[in-house]
Specification:
Blueprint (H helix, E strand, L loop, with lengths): L3 H25 L14 H7 L5 E2 L5 E2 L8 H13 L2 E2 L1 H8 L3 H13 L15 H11 L2 H4 L19 H11 L8 E2 L2 H7 L4 H12 L16
Antiparallel strand pairs: 1-2, 3-4
Helix pairs in contact: 3-4, 3-5, 6-10, 8-9, 8-10
Length: 226
């Protein structure tokens, strides 16, 4: 005869299997990202990311990141992190939570293809390149972000080369931020890496990385874009 505890255990296991099956079914509902389907979903993106030199004012003034040419898997990962609250930025959290998982996949696919016919991006070097290269070695940045910091070893890691230096500085500082409801990023690997450096060193790194040639671009788009 089955005891009450046996019955309870079987019920609990059945519930877990049922939940897992439902989660799997939901995950299967998300199709590979479709750039064409994203045409009607990027209105909230182009107001910032479709304007060359556009500056945000939170948490400090900086140019918004270039996302055209970025890896689709990374864009998906970043938007999901904003959606879950692992990345704390009120505006991006609001946008990400308004998107379904399919919307995120489509938007990510769109921006990964955007600007491929444009020349590589690169910024102007400010500061001592040798010092910056020593800091890069200290952080072993290329071990994840790849050759020239433009060929990540995993598509869920971002391309960094040529990204706006002021944005990179703000992003790196966010990984150092704890116990703040509006600012911060919860990636433990990057948090450990960023905390190896002072703010002055992070600025040197950001300036150098922004001067490297890379795939990232801002593709101008009108708010009336369809």
């Amino acid at each position: 005869m089955k005891t009450l505890s046996h019955v309870a255990l079987q019920w609990a296991l059945a519930s877990v299997v049922s939940i897992a099956g439902a989660s799997s079914a939901l995950a299967q509902d998300v199709k590979p990202g479709d750039p064409a389907a994203a045409q009607s979903k990027i209105a909230m993106c182009i107001g910032c990311h479709g304007i060359i030199g556009y500056q945000a004012s939170f948490p400090e003034i900086h140019r918004v990141p270039m996302i055209s040419g970025q890896s689709a898997k990374y864009i998906e990962s970043a938007l999901q992190a904003y959606k879950k609250g692992d990345r704390k930025h009120p505006t991006m959290r609001g946008i990400a939570t308004s998107l379904s998982d399919q919307d995120i996949a489509d938007v990510a696919a769109y921006y990964s293809q955007s600007g491929k016919d444009l020349p590589p991006s690169t910024g102007k070097m400010h500061g001592d390149a040798a010092q910056a290269e020593a800091l890069l070695k200290k952080g072993n940045c290329a071990s994840c972000h790849g050759e020239g910091l433009n060929k990540p070893i995993d598509p869920s890691y971002p391309k960094l080369a040529g990204q706006h230096n002021d944005y990179l500085f703000v992003a790196l500082k966010a990984y150092q931020t704890d116990n703040n409801s509006k600012i911060g990023r919860g990636n433990p690997i990057m948090a450990g890496q960023a905390k190896l450096f002072t703010h002055a060193e992070l600025k040197i790194l950001a300036n150098y990385i922004g001067s490297l040639p890379g795939d990232l671009k801002t593709v101008p788009q009108s708010p009336m874009h369809k």
